[in-house]
């Protein structure tokens, strides 16, 4: 395990909830609380669940050439992202494979905020900034509180001057919530309508406590990291560490984030050359099993290996389904394909199914 060198201002709150900590991006995060992760999962789907996602890395790009720097570092056209908007997409290596993913927020006045995982996004942005009139600076203090679920709007709307019902998906505003200055964004990692608050560390506990106070009669719960795994699997939300490492966007169904006709971006030549030559396809499977797979299992057809199970599969207690994202040879990736899972306690059978299995039209996030 990597050494923990970063600490959330909410750590004491997590300990009060019985948090059992594990390292993620060098920060101790609450993998579980004393509450049942299944109840936390239910809160996200039926009311709202609150997560401390401060562990995700953040950096700012500022200066006259800030847009040009990021436009070279990501696959989508940053010039189309207006102030007050954001967009999600991948960062590539020169070889055309994904080294990180993240959300780029246009804050206006030649300033951008990038929120990403544990990959090379900042390193790539720094390389793209060489010779440009722009600076790339790590923001290690900014905290991220995420409130996800159908009652998130009802809870937050009375406590911010923003017209929250009118805020569109992947839009944001600098405002206050419970009187605390923050960047309020309609984004999330749940498959639900939700909001994320980027706040200075000394204000994080105020927002956290107020959400729990005003949400106590609404079914709102603080949620541990354990509950996010089935939530994100139901919604087919990709996690770089488990689903994207060293793959092309074509292989992981992210072609929609590639603007092929924009000016040059890192890895463009290799990426375009790789189109149509995918080594595998990212697919979803439903396993004939009443628990989650371990991850890493081989997938077989008639004794031939045709793919592998990605890390962190999940069992949805709400849908009574064992779900996993997998890599399959393109020729066997059709929906309905039957597979055998070569597991230590198996084998088991599985079927390629259409993902997401929850809110298949994504109306809950986009409406």
Topology readout:
Blueprint: H1 11-16, E1 20-24, E2 27-32, H2 37-46, E3 49-52, E4 57-62, H3 66-73, E5 86-92, E6 98-108, E7 111-116, H4 121-128, E8 135-138, E9 143-148, H5 152-156, E10 172-177, E11 180-185, E12 194-199, H6 201-215, E13 221-222, H7 225-234, H8 240-244, H9 268-274, E14 281-287, E15 298-301, E16 304-309, E17 314-316, E18 321-328, E19 338-342, E20 348-353, H10 363-366
Binding site for substrate: 196
InterPro entries: GcvT/YgfZ/DmdA, GcvT/YgfZ_C, GcvT_C, GCVT_N, TrmE/GcvT-like
GO biological process, one term: methylation
Task: Walk me through the structure.
- This protein is α+β, with helices and mostly antiparallel strands.
- The model has no long low-confidence stretch (mean pLDDT 98).
- A hairpin with a 2-residue loop joins strand 6 and strand 7.
- It has helices at residues 11-16, 37-46, 66-73, 121-128, 152-156, 201-215, 225-234, 240-244, 268-274, 363-366; strands at 20-24, 27-32, 49-52, 57-62, 86-92, 98-108, 111-116, 135-138, 143-148, 172-177, 180-185, 194-199, 221-222, 281-287, 298-301, 304-309, 314-316, 321-328, 338-342, 348-353.
- The chain folds into two domains: 11-54 and 142-232, Probable tRNA modification gtpase trme, domain 1 (Gyrase A, domain 2), CATH 3.30.1360.120; 233-363, Aminomethyltransferase beta-barrel domains (Elongation Factor Tu (Ef-tu), domain 3), CATH 2.40.30.110.
- The protein is globular and about 60 Å long.
- Helix 2 (37-46) crosses helix 7 (225-234) and helix 3 (66-73) packs across helix 4.
- It contains ten helices and 20 strands.
- Helices cover 21% and strands 31% of the residues.
- The strands form four sheets. Strands 10-11-12-9-3-13 form a six-stranded mixed beta sheet. Strands 14-18-16-15-19-20 form a six-stranded antiparallel barrel. Strands 5-6-7-4-8 form a five-stranded antiparallel beta sheet, with helices on one face.
- GO terms for molecular function: aminomethyltransferase activity; methyltransferase activity.
- Residues 10-262 form the GCVT N-terminal domain.
- InterPro entries: GcvT/YgfZ/DmdA (IPR028896), GcvT/YgfZ_C (IPR029043), GcvT_C (IPR013977), GCVT_N (IPR006222), TrmE/GcvT-like (IPR027266).
